[in-house]
Amino acid sequence: LDHRQIAKVLGNFSEDGRDYLMMQYIKGQDLRQLVKQQGLQPELKVIDWALEIVDILSYLHAQSPPVIHRDLTPDNLVLDQNGAVVLID
Fold first, then answer.
1. Cα separation values, 56 from 12, 15, 19, 45, 62, Å
2. Distance between CA atoms of 5 and 51, rounded to whole angstroms?
3. Is 29 left (phi over 0), alpha (psi -120 to 50) or beta?
4. pTM of the predicted model, to two decimals?
5. What pLDDT does residue 86 have?
6. Is 48 an active-site residue?
7. Is pLDDT of 11 > 90?
8. How far apart are the first and last CA of the chain?
9. What gap in Å lies between CA 47 and CA 24, rounded to an integer?
10. Which of 7, 18, 37, 50 has an alpha carbon 20 to 30 Å from 75's alpha carbon atom?
11. DSSP track, 13-70
């Protein structure tokens, strides 16, 4: 995958029958933490984030075969240093 708003997979390994991914570290705050610390966010900001998330999902679903994240939560959406939403995990 090569999208500026998706954390890069750097490697993978298996241990004790479980599979693991090593992923790029994204410095920033996840959306759950942000709302917990700062409260509800302005509607227009949330709409902008939603549009960024839709772009990320469109990219994933356009892959062959499509990539389904299956854990799209505020915990897995980080605002990077520039304020862009980045999908992790």
1. 22, 30, 24, 17, 10
2. 12
3. beta
4. 0.90
5. 98
6. no
7. yes
8. 13
9. 26
10. 18
11. EEETTEEEEEE----SEEHHHHHHHH-SPPHHHHHHHHHHHHHHHHHHHTSSSPP--S
